[in-house]
Specification:
- Chain A: Its main location: membrane.
- Chain A: It is found in: Cell inner membrane.
- The structure holds two protein chains of two kinds.
- Chain A contains ten helices and no strands.
- By secondary structure, chain A is mainly α.
- In chain A, helix 6 runs antiparallel to helix 10.
- Chain A starts with a helix and ends with a helix.
- Chain B has two domains: 109 residues, P-loop containing nucleotide triphosphate hydrolases (Rossmann fold), CATH 3.40.50; 62 residues, no CATH class.
- In chain B, the strands form two sheets. In chain B, strands 6-7-8-3-9 form a five-stranded parallel sheet, with helices on both faces. Chain B has a four-stranded antiparallel sheet with strand order 2-1-4-5, with helices on one face.
- Chain B is globular.
- The two termini of chain B are 21 Å apart.
- Classes of the chains: A mainly alpha, B alpha/beta.
- At the A-B interface, helix 1 and helix 5 of A face helix 2, strand 6 and helix 3 of B.
């Protein structure tokens, strides 16, 4: 456990020193959401209708941005060898990386979600559901993305391969996340959809680090 | 204690080395020499358990290390040709992660490599030799029986190489084994040499 926390602490500290990386993902998220009103034109009702799906898709794409460096940076500077020889189980290394990715990318995206929701003309009643849906969906993406990052480590053009592997697996997160926000926007309870999303997260949380750890090898 | 039995390594179809066997008792040192591409770094990675050998086995006290990789990892330190430093973290923070994983104290390890005055500087501003010394400081954190060093003195000035002498001697006096790949003279008296 102390090894997990040591590794997680280092991830967060590194992200705090490289603030531009986190900021880039957040700016990407807000800018993609800002493009929709221009594309849709002067139709606020239509914009509000596509808002849930657009919000989810933009957030997941933004969360993908730093994933190819998740293990890549450590592999290049030799840190990965040291981690693999550190005595920590590989699954624990992967779990720390996944949680680190969520804290340094997912949380800032959630914090920016009211801005994005406003740009997309999402009714204020649904903002709470949007925060909850994004929290669960980005956590799921961090877990799936860690598996993808471990699998594509060392592959040529891994940066292209990674979204191709991860995004299809993230489709359920988009479906249930958007459904939760839409339910809240039309005055219904978002709880059933959020619970389904939570079930997906509960499934991925123990399995994904094990899979990522098994894929993690020295080159 | 450490034994290599009939090790072979393939790169593509070509054998880099084959039929390599040696045994090292406690306190021994082995220098790996040979031309670039002779497989020195690869042999160190095989001894570390990071790469499986194409043939043969690495044994520790007679047991194949491949059977229990995590037990083998816990008994060795590997200083690769990369320094494994994060430029954005300070010198002390870089070492602190490994101190938390392995035990040991940061400041004495930095003092052993004469890095203590630089402890609060970001690793980004270090010279190549200072970065190398910080990588070597990981060796001093907590004692383990096997050190695998890949060109440990690259970029070091004469005073730093000299400072490495007593550190290596202490390790061997405790019964530790050193396997080092090098082109440069190392302060390792009575080391066996293996030319690849």
């Amino acid at each position: 456990m102390s090894g997990f926390l040591a590794l997680l602490g280092r991830e967060v500290r590194l992200a705090l020193r490289h603030k531009a990386d986190t900021l880039a993902a957040v700016m990407f998220f807000v800018l993609v959401c800002a493009l929709f009103p221009f594309g849709v034109g002067p139709a606020p009702e239509l914009l509000a209708r596509i808002a849930p799906g657009a919000l989810l898709a933009a957030a997941l794409l933004a969360a993908l941005l730093p994933l190819d460096r998740l293990f890549g940076a450590d592999a290049e500077d030799g840190t990965l060898d040291q981690l693999l020889l550190s005595g920590l189980p590989r699954g624990v290394i992967a779990a720390a990386k996944a949680l680190g990715h969520w804290i340094t990318t997912g949380l800032p995206l959630i914090a920016a979600s009211p801005v994005a929701a406003a740009l997309l003309n999402l009714p204020v009643e649904a903002w709470g559901a949007a925060v909850a849906a994004l929290a669960l969906a980005t956590a799921l993406l961090s877990l799936l993305g860690t598996v993808g990052a471990a699998l594509t480590l060392g592959a040529r053009r891994g940066g292209v391969l990674l979204p191709l592997l991860v995004l299809p697996l993230a489709i359920p997160a988009v479906i249930f996340g958007a459904a939760a926000i839409e339910a809240a926007a039309s005055g219904l309870s978002p709880a059933p959809f959020l619970l389904l999303l939570g079930a997906g997260l509960a499934l991925a949380a123990p399995l994904a680090p094990v899979a990522a750890g098994a894929a993690l090898t020295a080159e | 204690m450490l034994e290599a039995r009939d090790l072979a390594c393939l790169r593509g179809e070509r054998a880099v080395f084959a039929g390599l066997s040696f045994g090292l008792p406690a306190g021994a040192a082995l220098l790996l020499t040979g031309a670039n591409g002779a497989g020195k770094s690869t042999l160190l990675r095989i001894l570390a358990g990071l790469l499986p050998p194409a043939e043969g086995a690495v044994l520790w006290r007679g047991e194949d290390v491949g059977a229990e990789p995590s037990a083998h990892a816990a008994r060795l330190r590997y200083v690769s040709h990369q320094d494994a430093l994060k430029p954005a973290l300070t010198v002390a923070e870089n070492l602190a992660l490994f101190a938390r994983l392995w035990g040991g104290a940061v400041m004495p390890a930095l003092e052993a490599l004469a890095l203590a005055p630089l402890a609060d500087l970001p690793a980004r501003v270090l010279s190549a030799g200072q970065r190398r010394r910080l990588a070597l400081a990981r060796l001093v954190l907590a004692p383990v029986p096997l050190w695998l060093l890949d060109e440990p003195t690259t970029g070091l000035d004469a005073a730093s190489v000299e400072r490495l002498g007593p550190i290596l001697a202490d390790h061997r006096a405790r019964g530790g084994i050193v396997v080092a790949a090098t082109h440069l003279p190392l302060p390792l008296p009575d080391a066996r040499e293996l030319r690849l």
